[in-house]
Amino acid sequence: HPINAHENNTTTCCYCGVGCGIVAHKDQLGRLQVEGDKDYPVNKGMLCSKGMNLHYTVNDYSDRLLYPEMRYSRNLPRQRVSWEMALERTAAVFRTLIDKYGPDSVAFYASGQCLTEEYYIVNKLIKGYIGSNNIDTNSRLCMSSAVVGYKMSLGEDSVPVSYEDLEVADVIFVAGANPAWCHPVLWRRVEAARQTNPDLKIIVSDPRKTQTCSIADVHLQLHPGTDITLHHAIGRALIEKGYIDADFVNDHTEGFAQYRKQVFSKTIAEAAQVCGVEEEAIRQVADYIGRARGFMTLWTMGLNQSVVGVNKNLSLINLNLITGHIGKPGSGPLSLTGQPNAMGGREVGGLSNLLPAHRDLLNVQHRREVEDFWGIRPGTISDKPGLTATEMFDALEDGRLKAIWILCTNPLISLPDVRKAEAALKKAKFVVVQEISNKPETLAYADVVLPAAAWTEKEGTMTNAERRISYLNKIMEAPGEALPDATILCRFAQKMGFTGFDFENTAAIFNEHGALTAGTRMDISALNYELLKARRSVQWPFTEAAGKQGTSRLFEDHQFYTTSHRAQIHSFPDDNHSETPSPDYPLILTTGRIRDQWHTMSKTGKVNKLKQHISESFLEIHPEDATPRQIKENDLVVIKSRRGEVRIKARLSDTIKQGVVFLPMHWGKILGKDGNRANNLTNNLVDPKSKEPDFKFSAVAVYRY
Ligand code: SF4
Fold this sequence. Notes:
Blueprint lengths: L9 E3 L8 E6 L5 E5 L12 H4 L1 H6 L9 E2 L8 E2 L2 H19 L4 E5 L5 H15 L4 E3 L6 H11 L16 E5 L3 H4 L1 H13 L4 E5 L12 E3 L6 H14 L5 H7 E2 L1 H8 L4 H8 L3 H13 L3 E5 L1 H4 L4 H14 L9 E4 L6 H6 L6 E2 L3 E2 L3 H11 L14 H9 L5 E5 L3 H4 L3 H10 L2 E6 L12 E4 L8 E4 L4 E5 L12 H11 L10 H11 L12 H7 L1 E3 L27 E2 L18 E6 L26 E3 L1 H4 L9 E6 L3 E8 L7 E5 L33 E7 L1
Parallel strand pairs: 6-7, 6-16, 8-9, 8-12, 9-10, 11-22, 12-13, 16-17, 17-18, 23-27, 24-26
Antiparallel strand pairs: 1-2, 2-3, 4-5, 4-18, 14-15, 19-20, 20-21, 23-28, 24-27, 25-26, 25-28
The structure holds iron/sulfur cluster.
GO biological process, one term: nitrate assimilation
Function: Catalytic subunit of the periplasmic nitrate reductase complex NapAB. Receives electrons from NapB and catalyzes the reduction of nitrate to nitrite.
Cofactor: FAD; Mo-bis(molybdopterin guanine dinucleotide); [4Fe-4S] cluster
């Protein structure tokens, strides 16, 4: 599998949303090697352990899917078939189901790891041509609460800051995140900023004392689910001390009076007690924020993955708004994206309730604009939001959904209450899995398997967490008959008889996506592959006024994207609607990442070096919770929830809040048994506005095996 003789073998890391630049080259044995791109503004040559070891995942073909496979009935094994036959049959089944049960009987479940062009095609295919909005991605499990939070507070899903703002902030508040492990290169930049500016204050809120806390001035070790109470209390302390920016609040926001009333409904002492933190710590945090010239809020899954995830987001963004810390250097909210291209997916409308370029599915004018652009009959795009990630599996279970096409994601590890999802896939009439690896558990249910080209084997673009679009070169050929995901989807669309998918190349897909953004707030219509190759990356919006590298900061004019052009300060009670612990399930389980593994390990699990840090899954439990249960270090324990159980070794640690236990999210089944899959335990309660699941709060019992 030769490496292409491209002069420029630059690409972007395919793991987290930091989006580090990589230079790939061939070693003497012809194998791919990678190093951090010193000229890339995001990482300036740095890579974390996962990025540094990416070449091992690329050079190891042992698990790659090489040929399409198909079976004619559930009782028969799959067999190798031609692309022609696999796509012909898939199209025939889809046509039959759509004719018989309607367009909403089929769905696509995609991934924040898809390239923007792939997202664009799958979204166009189902919304514009099949006539259903049943396209959702695993970004629903990750960023959808932040999307709604931004829309409700700022008027659009628009991250207002750049990473460079972190280097000029005076105070950084990291809420429910462990960037030292999960966004390591970005955190190295914060650590470097602290060295340059020892007065930089870092605040972390997290039930676990993580690596990120090692440089924190204040660690608010709160009870899970109490983030809103904490943020409200900080808001109250800021108001009491006169730290709000009254001019900004009066001139550029709405909702402050109601907010003031809401946050004053609890004293700071009461809030501290609810959260399980010191009252003095809350006041100290407010003092730091109140005196800052630049104040940034950072967050990720601790806020997003919650049944009240949107309110958690809004309550944090409120702290930026009441202090006027937005639209100026070193200030603003920055949601850390879990996946490399979750933002690119949102740009093309790749969720069941969105349309391209941040258009709204429920807005009839927006639907007409997209229909006109695609040249399809008015009314083709349905006004009914499609099924979200968890809803798709519910609908498979109860028979509303007949067929699902899963691409670039492994839902049988990553979905909440995963055994329910497994039962749903068993009931599906037709399952297509488009994958690079033969490992994902979904393959056991696949009627058709389509081998996809992996990272470095195709070109395309991604957008990182600071709105930075980068171009990824194709560096090597895909093995066997694997094809780029966009090619597979276009060929399928053509088999379905749809016009509008005969793109000459990937650049043409990007250009069509760009043209649809013209005149919107994320306008990149002037951008193309040539420019991207020359400039390596740009931040949207990329307009003439923005300059050569695009726009690094939004809202400098304080004109927000809401109808009134004012940012919205939302008010709501601080209730948490998670499941209730009980004497039978007294502990709270929270799940998350470890430093050297990525998602469901289909790539990082192949790299021995990445197992050196943590080689197997574990339950983290506080000694005060372990001792009464006679649990000692390394004992095998059973964790039970109302959904299922996990058996695993215990790790005792006083860095986790008493009453809380932690399981890594990465591991799947062991020897075909339920093993240590964290999502056996989680529930599929979702936030009503974002439909993001409540991964961080499951009531569990733990006892010695
Ligand atoms: Fe890749 Fe994220 Fe690590 Fe950068 S920080 S090398 S993008 S995993």
